Every structure is written in C-alpha cells, then in structure tokens.
Amino acid sequence: MTNKQQCITVFFDGACPQCIRDQRFYQHFAGQGGEQVKWLDITGQDEYLKTLGIVPVKALTELHIQLANGEVLSELDAYIVLMSRVWLLKPLAFFISLPIIRPFIARIYHQRVTKRLKSQGRM
Known about the structure:
The chain contains 6 helices and 4 strands, in the order βαβααββααα. Helix content is 50%, strand content 13%. By secondary structure, the protein is α+β, with helices and mostly antiparallel strands. Strand 3 and strand 4 form a beta hairpin. The chain is globular, with a radius of gyration of 14 Å. Helix 4 packs antiparallel against helix 5.
C-alpha cells in the first residue's frame, strides 16, 4: 500500500468506553496515517446507517467501515483493513485473516460484544 492511502470511515459506538479507548489506541499507533481515517459515532445515526445498508443493531455488534469507493465492510474484514494501515498492527491483521484463526476470533469477538452490551443494558 502506498503512503497516500484512501480515506476510510470507521463507524464506532461512542457510548462504549472500550470503543473510545480502542479508537484512541488506533490513532496513537497510526500517527499521521490516522489522518486518513474518519471516525463516525453511530449513536443516534440509525437512519444514516440504513442509507448505507448497515443494520443499526449490527453496527453495535460488529465493526463497520466504509472505503473511499463507498463499499462497506464489517466484522473481521473491517478490522483487517483498518489494522493493515498501521505497520505495527499489520502482523495482527494477517494473523486474524488466517482461515483457521478467523472463525475462532469472530466467535470470541461476538461473545465479548454481546456481554458488554448486555451489561450496559443495551441488548
């Protein structure tokens, strides 16, 4: 990938303290590359999400990103693209993309998100 990366939009849950920490963590490690990532808080954005073909409840339970060409990716596909933009996170992106690892990581991710949302009374 070139230094001049296309801008992407990350849809994140601004009501989630862990999501905000993850956003800050990413921005810290992305450095100047983080300028090519826009963060959109999905709180109260149900109608906008629907216009993009994103089911609002799925936006709470899975990471979604929108590429510069308008394509929307979700779950691990979104994480892989996002992490691949940061040299320090590229090995992790490769690891979670492995066919033998991917289903295991997806299951753990969904369990953690469901637990978080239930504990917050949001699911």
